[in-house]
Structure formats: C-alpha cells, structure tokens
Amino acid sequence: MRLPAEILEGLPDWPALMGVEVAAAYCNMSVDSFERCVEAGRVPAAVTDLPVRRKMWQRAALDAAINRRVGGEHDRQARKAEWRRRHQDRSPDAG
After folding, report:
1. How large is the greatest C-alpha to C-alpha distance in the chain, in angstroms?
2. Residue (of 24, 22, 41) closest to 33 by Cα position
3. Which of 18, 19, 36, 94 has its CA 20 to 30 Å from the CA of residue 52?
4. What residue ranges define each of the domains in the chain, with the CATH number in brackets?
C-alpha cells in the first residue's frame, strides 16, 4: 500500500514514531521492500515496548540506520570529533 500524495505532502515534519506505511514512505520504499529490509537487518526492527498493538518505528533509529548505510553527515561529524578527541594529546598546544 502506498500513501496518497496528499498525506505525504501534509508531513513536513515526520512523526517521531511511524507505522509501517509511513516508515516505508519515509525511507522511500514500498511496504514490502521495507519489511524485507527489516528482516535482513538493514533497517531497525519496530519498537516493541509501546502500549499500542501496531508496529511502530522510531524516526531517529531510521535516520541513524540510513546514515550508517550511506555515511551521512552526522556520522562524518562524529568520526571527526572522535579523531580530534583521540589526537588532542598530540597537539603542540597540549601539555
């Protein structure tokens, strides 16, 4: 099932928790493709400790998974910060 364009256009700010249809649309996938990616571990599993019956995915977890797969800006910044932290002791100004 694909979400109608009018629903997607009404989502300038994607919800923090999404059902499978919205999560798949967020990842620009069909529901079937999204579910295959979940089964293969390429996309995080649904949140299981919620008081709702339907499966829900966290937007932040989807973003993190996408960034890990494509080397997103957040990951680059984190790697730079880690490198600086590890090499801080070697700088001429240290000590």
Report:
1. 61
2. 24
3. 36
4. 5-90 (1.10.10)
- Confidence tier at 68 by pLDDT (50, 70, 90): confident
CB 17 within 8 A of CB 24: no
**In 1-95, alpha helices (H):** 5-9, 20-26, 31-40, 59-70, 73-87
pTM: 0.63
- On whether the CB atoms of residues 95 and 53 are closer than 8 A, the answer is no
Q: Is 55 helix (H, G, I), strand (E, B) or coil?
A: coil
Residue with structure tokens 């019956």?
53
Give yes or no for a contact between 31 and 21, defined as CB atoms under 8 angstroms apart. Answer: yes
Please name the residue that has the structure tokens 């529901």. 31
